What we know:
Blueprint: H1 3-15, E1 18-19, H2 20-29, H3 35-38, H4 51-54, H5 56-72, E2 79-84, H6 90-98, H7 103-108, E3 109-114, H8 118-127, E4 134-136, E5 148-153, E6 162-167, E7 170-178, E8 184-192, E9 206-209, H9 211-227, E10 229-238, E11 247-250, E12 253-255, E13 265-267, E14 270-271, H10 272-281, E15 285-291, H11 292-299, H12 301-310, H13 314-328, H14 333-336, E16 337-343
Parallel strand pairs: 2-3, 2-5, 3-4, 5-10, 10-14
Antiparallel strand pairs: 1-7, 6-7, 6-9, 7-8, 10-16, 11-12, 11-13, 15-16
Helix pairs in contact: 5-6, 9-10, 12-13
Amino acid sequence: MPALEDIIKAEITQNGPMDVGRFMALCLGHPDYGYYMTRDPFGVQGDFTTAPEISQMFGEMVGAWVVDVWQKLESPSSFTLLECGAGRGTLMADILRTAKAVPQFLEAVQVVLLETSPVLRVKQKEILSAVSPVWIESLDDLKKAQPLIVVGNEFLDALPIRQFQKSEGQFREKLIGLNEKNELSFGLSDIPSQGAFPLDVKEGEITERAPIREAFMRTLCTRLKAYGGAGLFIDYGYNQRHGDTLQAIKDHQFVSPLDHVGEADLTTHVDFLALRRVCTEEDICEYGIVKQTDFLKALGIVPRAEILKQKATPEQKARIAQDLERLIGLDQMGKLFKVMAFSSERISMAGFSL
């Protein structure tokens, strides 16, 4: 039995069933056995592939967005470019390569990476050594009092959430305990949960809350209010309430969240409507939610693909077309992935219609 599963079972035995958020936090972030602490999960040899690893075109479009926002914020002479969950550093490398066309941007930028994985930090250090990035483990570690531009691709989906099921007209929290075989199993709390829940949830349905995700967004908004700036989050999610979205992926296949503890990626779909409400409450401008396909097309990914094809071999042309379709195809990432932008002051936000 894996060591992390033993640790989780011991905690349940001592303290009783744990909520889904605690389970996610241990599976992904346990300092010794957590999923992101022990491996590089990306690519064919890993468990999943993210957009920056599919094609340089994705990072180039995000880079164009970042430079455009910086200019619309009146080109501050010193600012922080923060990436949350930077993976192998591929996205940031593509952003900075795109920004070479604007030397003043590169003179002004300080690259900061919010990253807890020691394995991924090593890879980020290798690919980004020329810009001497600074690593932080929380937003509280941001020290410089200067404007901030933040980007995050497939970051929010890994922040722990909690789940509640409507049972006999009341909401009870979904918990993880041990069955008669001493196996991890889902159950419901004996005590009804307090607080406001959506009125349209039917008997037996699941609804999710993401207090850590919303607190993260609120802290980010506070920072933007104090020093100015903007942000962009790209993730799979929704703009209205959904049900049970907890999923686990191993070797590019879906598996049970209770299997392969610490060896499978755990994620949930992002409730973007809740994050938009946080922006409104914090007096931060938000620009709605757009599909990834619409965002990338608005930034010019289709003509960029044609330019890349001009000097490509037939095999390379086919690969470029394949990668483009994967990024913007409505039956692939184009529709499932959503894009959210926000800023300290209202600007003409590239990729979004006002």
